[in-house]
Design goal:
This protein is mainly beta. It contains 2 helices and 13 strands. The chain has a 5-stranded mixed beta sheet with strand order 9-10-8-7-13. A 4-stranded antiparallel beta sheet has the order 2-1-5-6, with no helix packed on it. The radius of gyration is 22 Å and the shape is elongated.
């Protein structure tokens, strides 16, 4: 298979930029790139996802055709479990376990392999201002068949206003801030694959405090 990126028309032969294997087994399609060292066989390489590839099966019989490199079940899967203990001074000490599978794993893996400092800067402190990291550990860093597990111990001084102290339950999820700040948008947003997030939080309040308002349910698929 030969692939071409970033064009809506069929290219000339000089525009092809990569050769890969396109394999069908029991109606399952696999796209294999020998230069991709981290992508497992059941995922399409992320840099060609949702592009067009020219599949040449038998050159002598002109048995060939265009294929869209896409499967609807491809996803970035993230499971985030956070627990926090809040004291009277408004300091939260907590632990988090983040399980990143499929494309979520591929996104985080290169940064994790660069070292803990790079990982903390990109995925923790950048979206959680004031958070201090006590410890970060990784599991399955060199296994392409298992999800990447990140375990984090942290502490954070909560924001306060008068007698109120407040915090976001989305900490360490990658959803701390909304990248789409404009009130009106004129185009669809396409991530290349589905985004699947599961967040579980458990927060202990100090004596004398109570929750004024719980997060509201919102279905982003609606």
């Amino acid at each position: 298979m030969i692939t071409v990126l970033y064009t809506e028309i069929e290219p000339g032969f000089l525009q092809f930029d990569k050769v890969m294997a396109y394999v069908e087994i029991n109606k399952n399609v696999y796209v294999l790139d020998a230069t991709e060292k981290e992508t497992p066989a059941d995922l399409f390489p992320p840099d060609v996802l949702a592009t067009e590839g020219l599949v040449i099966e038998k050159l002598e019989t002109f048995d060939w055709g265009w294929r869209t490199l896409w499967k609807s079940d491809l996803a970035a899967k993230s499971f985030i479990q956070v627990s926090g203990q809040i004291d009277e001074r408004g300091n939260m000490a907590g632990e988090a376990t983040i399980t990143s599978a499929d494309y979520a794993r591929l996104n985080r893996l290169p940064v994790a392999k660069e070292g803990k400092d790079k990982f903390i800067e990109k995925y923790i402190t950048a979206g959680n201002v004031g958070m201090k990291v006590d410890e970060v550990t990784f599991e399955n860093l060199n296994s392409d068949s298992l999800p990447l597990i990140q375990k984090i111990k942290f502490n954070q001084l909560l924001n306060s206003s008068g007698d109120y102290k407040y915090f976001s339950v989305n900490i360490l999820s990658g959803l701390e801030t909304n990248p789409f700040v404009a009130d009106n948008r004129s185009s669809d947003v396409f991530f290349g694959y589905c985004q699947n997030y599961v967040l579980v939080g458990s927060f202990m309040l100090p004596d004398g405090y109570e929750v004024e308002a719980l997060p509201k349910y919102k279905d982003d698929n609606a």
